[in-house]
Specification:
Elements (H helix, E strand, L loop, with lengths): L9 H9 L9 H16 L6 H8 L8 H17 L1
Helix pairs in contact: 1-2, 3-4
């Protein structure tokens, strides 16, 4: 059964359009894309720990930027949860 009648999330809609995939008509490729987006979003629900965030940005543990980077990362996580 096709997913084309199930409402799209913003992420799905943006991705489908960006990849030139069908939105309003039945499409196995679009359905597979949406399943992948859904799976990926479930995998990213656990927040990163401080070490992961600092490593990602290349910030040393003793850096004066540490608190700013961590606060910024937490703000992004909260904004993503609101979406």
């Amino acid at each position: 059964m096709s997913m084309h009648k199930i409402p799209l999330t913003n992420t799905e809609k943006t991705g489908l359009i960006a990849h030139g995939l069908d939105i309003c008509t039945p499409s196995q490729l679009s359905d597979a894309f949406r399943q992948g987006v859904s799976w990926g979003e479930k995998q990213n629900k656990e927040p990163l720990n401080e070490k992961q965030i600092l490593d990602f940005f290349g910030i040393d543990e003793k850096s004066t930027l540490k608190l700013v980077v961590l606060a910024f990362a937490r703000a992004i996580e909260k904004a993503h949860d609101i979406e």
